[in-house]
């Protein structure tokens, strides 16, 4: 057991003995004490945030510059926090692994950002956004946090507009909105298909302004490789300068992780190449709980894999499903044919067939799973990769007939161009091919209402935390959460913690600092000293295949157990046989990747254990054992209405190894909303 | 297909570099240019040779991290980023020369990787609107004519890749700067700091060692986001106005 603030845990550790209702994960975990206090204030839900802001202690402006804050990550969550805390006068150090803060993965977000402005007078409100988010998350998120998110969403738009974010506007000069992801109100603000880019540039410019003002120091091409914990509190990080290889110690009064999501555990995903779990995982190993790690969002409309050289996947906007019809050939023998030569009667418009009322517009997870099923049956299309064709047609011919080519061009021209550039095929003439891909992770480090992890002084924001999306995230809500956390939530909650600072000064010679630094140096030395035979990427790819096969769109008890065995074997082999060339004292991209893949291996194992434990289907997590007669996801609120927060345990037999994790449960209680079973029929 | 790659190899910023030749077989036209380099690197690792260092992150043409001189053209033969270039733009037997961005203001870090920190410092010198978090007025309090918003957006799409600098015979970053000046200058929110912004950014640009603009237009031809040349006229116009106003 690690150092936990006493206030967050109560109860007897033996409280929830396994074995109650067919405990699938028995033997894979150790039950721990429940999490009782999330620090969310009581009272009516719409007053809680006001209460917390008022009760959070203030820091005297003269003291702020004596307080050092480390922020890892410069995406929407980290960039906005660094800028805001710099403006407030704290002494901020901001880290990212790219060569500029502006390149964080948030830049790639396309569709838009939600906010409950109700500019369309279509019945939107803070309460409705709250309701939609909890329901969309399949009743697996914490209601106080979600309510606050909806509440501050409106401030985000004001702030971004003032920064010069060029959102789409109507002829009268006011902001335009669209409806997104199947919700019934238009609350999504957007900047063509590049909303993430524009929001991030706004945050980046605010950040650079603080760099110029001297409140923020920027460390680019730096990777956090270890968290420093002194007397139970997060007090700094060990980072590697990716250009010189120097292993640096950075100390502070508080540490914020805004390091993004870990979808790259699947190797192929729509995430940026460098997106990783290392910052979060190192904190997890030092005592921060990891919550709901198995909750992954798989997006149905991505460009399929073309071959074993594939390095990443590209998202095609979901809006395409409004006009495209999805099909595969009825007969396997037709799969190699030119689709235009396959007559109507030989096509299976499977979504329209199975879900006649929703058709091609069924929710993301359902569309994704259905595509996997038809491809597993051998009816996929496109190039064969490792013996299977993984693609389905998204056909616009009917829409082109109906709206004319001009009509389609006007709506989707840039997407069609992007598709043509990547595939070399003209989607105006031949149907597009699409396949689902990993897109986002709802799981992440556990945080309380203050966004503080189970390590005091370690705060976590953005995709790196688990807080707001439950088992499934609604479109356009990740950008909202990142900016809500960074601009409007963290700056208030962190001051309550900092009110006790500045904390006792620590020296670089402190044993905890020395130990953290040595751990990093040892890892680097290990990788460079292993004269193995396999490249880092080859291991990453293999891990990704295991995760995708057994912990992807559909999960089963047997499959997950198999995956855990496979990952353990692969992990052993990786440590013994990985080949990393070059040295530590210059840019070494293989070395960077080796550290990331090592952490992905352990994370992958924990994801499988989490998925194994959760014998229910909810949101993006589909357990084949838990479905209705017609294949719909079936939740079990009586057994699983909780957040699974995992505590790391070291392996007693293997130095630095991963032992049997401890499961702490945070019960989810809804007072402002009633739990219902999701239905799309 | 099979290609011959001539690649600039340089161990670090201080050591001298040189071109090295590699033959690569089995290249598929569906590969992106960077995936082709990934395949080369996997081969090199297996052979025990140091893989080629190059930058990329999103591989979707939006983060601006990638950027190579390919046969003398910034981002290669198509109007797109290096990561969105595909091997179908080449043919069997081609020789492909790959170099890093060449500019005094972008020193080489290793092989094909350069340091573009100068761009951040130009932004620090004024490429922002000063508004502290929480102090913003209601978003609808200031309507922005739709056409202005569209113009601002069109140039705000700059990804900060540096191709404009690499393509310019003078090594000028005027297109990059002009894009930012125009983005913020088109919006009512950007007006109060319009003079100080342009003066600060241009001074930093010159201090970083970027060259002056002589209107050659190579920048806009190489720009993957098709930022138009007239942002530089806008930059000059704003600079003169600021100087007139006594800055
Ligand atoms: C293709 C795509 C489209 C999307 N579209 C939308 C959309 O339309 N709407 C929406 O709401 N959401 C969308 N999302 C999701 C959304 O973009 C992300 O969830 C969100 O941007 C994450 O922001 P973040 O600030 O938490 O992390 P990121 O933006 O991922 O930033 C992570 C930061 O951490 C740094 N970092 C990571 N590890 C380390 C380390 N070890 N050391 C130092 N620094 C480190 C990185 O350098 C980076 O600066 C989309 C996602 C994808 C992939
Ligand atoms: S102006 Fe164009 S070429 Fe120059 S940095 Fe911006 S996107 Fe790149
Ligand atoms: S890698 Fe992001 S633009 Fe090329």
TrEMBL record, chain B:
The keyword Metal-binding applies. The keyword Metal-binding applies. Its EC number is 1.3.5.1. It is an enzyme of class 1 (oxidoreductase). Transmembrane segments: none annotated. Its cofactor is [3Fe-4S] cluster; [2Fe-2S] cluster; [4Fe-4S] cluster. Keywords: 2Fe-2S, 3Fe-4S, 4Fe-4S, Iron, Iron-sulfur, Metal-binding, Oxidoreductase, Tricarboxylic acid cycle. It holds the Pfam family Fer2_3. Residues 149-178 form the 4Fe-4S ferredoxin-type domain. PANTHER family: SUCCINATE DEHYDROGENASE (PTHR11921:SF41), SUCCINATE DEHYDROGENASE IRON-SULFUR PROTEIN (PTHR11921). Belongs to the succinate dehydrogenase/fumarate reductase iron-sulfur protein family. This is succinate dehydrogenase.
């Amino acid at each position: 057991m690690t150092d936990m603030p006493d206030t967050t845990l109560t109860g007897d550790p033996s409280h929830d003995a396994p074995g109650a209702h067919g405990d699938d994960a028995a033997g894979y975990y150790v039950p721990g004490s429940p999490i009782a206090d999330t620090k969310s204030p009581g009272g009516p839900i719409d007053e809680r945030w006001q209460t917390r802001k008022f009760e959070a202690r203030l820091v005297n402006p003269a003291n702020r510059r004596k307080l050092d804050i480390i922020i890892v990550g410069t995406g929407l969550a980290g960039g906005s926090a660094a800028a805001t805390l710099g403006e407030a006068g704290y002494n901020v150090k901001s880290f990212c692994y790219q060569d500029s803060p502006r390149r964080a993965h948030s830049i790639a977000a396309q569709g838009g950002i939600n906010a409950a402005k109700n500019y369309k007078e279509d019945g939107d409100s803070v309460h409705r956004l709250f309701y939609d988010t909890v329901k969309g998350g399949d009743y697996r998120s914490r209601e106080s946090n979600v309510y606050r998110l909806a509440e501050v969403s409106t401030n985000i738009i004001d702030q971004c507009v003032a920064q010069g974010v060029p959102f789409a506007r109507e002829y009268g000069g006011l902001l335009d909105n669209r409806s997104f992801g199947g919700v019934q109100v238009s609350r999504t603000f957007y900047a063509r298909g590049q909303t993430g880019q524009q929001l991030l540039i706004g945050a980046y410019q605010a950040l650079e302004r603080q760099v110029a003002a001297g409140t923020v120091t920027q460390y680019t091409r730096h990777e956090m490789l270890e968290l420093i914990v002194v007397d139970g509190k997060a007090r700094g990080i060990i980072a590697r300068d990716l250009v010189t290889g120097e292993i640096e110690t950075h100390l502070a009064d508080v540490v914020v992780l805004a390091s993004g999501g870990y979808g790259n555990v699947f190797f192929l995903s729509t995430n940026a190449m460098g997106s990783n779990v290392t910052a979060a995982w190192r904190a997890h190993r030092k005592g921060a709980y990891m919550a709901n790690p198995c909750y992954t969002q798989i997006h149905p409309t991505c460009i399929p894999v073309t071959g074993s050289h594939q390095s990443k996947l590209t998202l095609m906007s979901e809006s395409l499903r409004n006009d495209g019809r999805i099909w595969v050939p009825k007969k396997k023998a037709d799969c190699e044919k030119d689709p235009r030569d396959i007559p109507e009667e030989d096509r299976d418009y499977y979504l329209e067939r199975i879900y006649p009322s929703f058709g091609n517009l069924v929710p993301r997870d359902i569309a994704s799973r259905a595509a996997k099923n038809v491809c597993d049956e051998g009816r996929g299309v496109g190039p064969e990769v490792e013996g299977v064709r993984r693609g389905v047609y998204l056909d616009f011919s009917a829409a082109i007939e109906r709206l004319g080519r001009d009509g389609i061009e006007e709506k989707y021209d840039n997407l069609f161009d992007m598709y043509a550039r990547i595939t070399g095929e003209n989607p105006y003439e031949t149907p597009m091919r699409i396949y689902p891909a990993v897109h986002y992770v709802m799981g992440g480090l556990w945080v309380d209402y203050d966004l503080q992890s189970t390590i005091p002084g370690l705060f976590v924001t953005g995709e790196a935390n688990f807080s707001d999306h439950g088992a499934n995230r609604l479109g356009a809500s990740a950008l909202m959460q990142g900016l809500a956390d960074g601009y409007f939530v963290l700056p208030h909650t962190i001051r309550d913690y900092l009110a006790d600072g500045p904390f006792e000064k620590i020296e670089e010679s402190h044993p905890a600092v020395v130990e953290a630094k040595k751990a990093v140096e040892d890892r680097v030395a290990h990788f460079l000293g292993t004269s193995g035979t396999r490249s880092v990427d080859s291991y990453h790819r293999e891990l990704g295949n295991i995760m995708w096969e057994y912990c992807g769109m559909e999960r089963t008890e047997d499959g997950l157990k198999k995956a855990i065995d496979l990952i353990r074997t692969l992990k052993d082999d990786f440590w013994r046989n990985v080949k990393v060339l070059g040295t530590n004292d210059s840019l070494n991209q293989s070395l960077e990747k080796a550290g990331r893949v090592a952490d992905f291996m352990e994370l992958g194992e924990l994801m499988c254990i989490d998925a194994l434990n959760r014998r229910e289907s909810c949101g993006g997590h589909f357990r084949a054992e838990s479905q209705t007669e017609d294949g719909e996801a079936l939740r079990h609120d009586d057994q699983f209405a909780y957040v699974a927060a995992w505590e790391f345990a070291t392996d007693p037999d293997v130095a630095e190894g991963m032992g049997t994790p401890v499961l702490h449960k945070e019960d989810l209680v809804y007072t402002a909303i009633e739990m219902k079973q999701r239905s799309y029929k | 297909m099979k290609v011959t790659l001539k690649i600039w190899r340089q161990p670090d910023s201080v050591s001298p570099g040189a071109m090295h030749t590699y033959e690569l077989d089995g290249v598929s036209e569906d590969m992106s240019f960077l995936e082709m380099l990934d395949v080369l690197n996997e081969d090199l690792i297996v052979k025990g040779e140091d893989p080629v260092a190059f930058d990329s992150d999103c591989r979707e043409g939006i983060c601006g991290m990638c950027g190579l001189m390919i046969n003398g053209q910034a981002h290669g033969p198509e109007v797109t980023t290096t990561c969105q270039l595909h091997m179908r733009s080449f043919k069997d037997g081609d020789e492909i020369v790959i170099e890093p961005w060449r500019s005094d203001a972008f020193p080489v870090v290793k092989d094909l990787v350069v340091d573009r920190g100068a761009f951040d410092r130009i932004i620090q010198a004024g490429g922002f609107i000063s508004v502290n978090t929480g102090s913003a007025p209601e978003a609808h309090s200031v309507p922005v004519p739709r056409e202005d918003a569209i113009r601002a957006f069109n140039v705000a799409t700059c990804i900060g890749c540096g191709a404009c600098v690499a393509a310019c015979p003078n090594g000028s970053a005027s297109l990059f700067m002009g894009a930012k000046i125009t983005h913020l200058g088109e919006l009512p929110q950007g007006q109060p700091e319009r003079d100080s912004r342009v003066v600060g950014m241009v001074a930093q640009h010159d201090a970083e060692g970027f060259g002056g603009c002589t209107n050659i237009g190579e920048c806009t031809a190489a720009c993957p986001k098709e930022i138009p040349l007239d942002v530089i006229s806008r930059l000059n116009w704003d600079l003169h106005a600021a100087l007139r106003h006594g800055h």
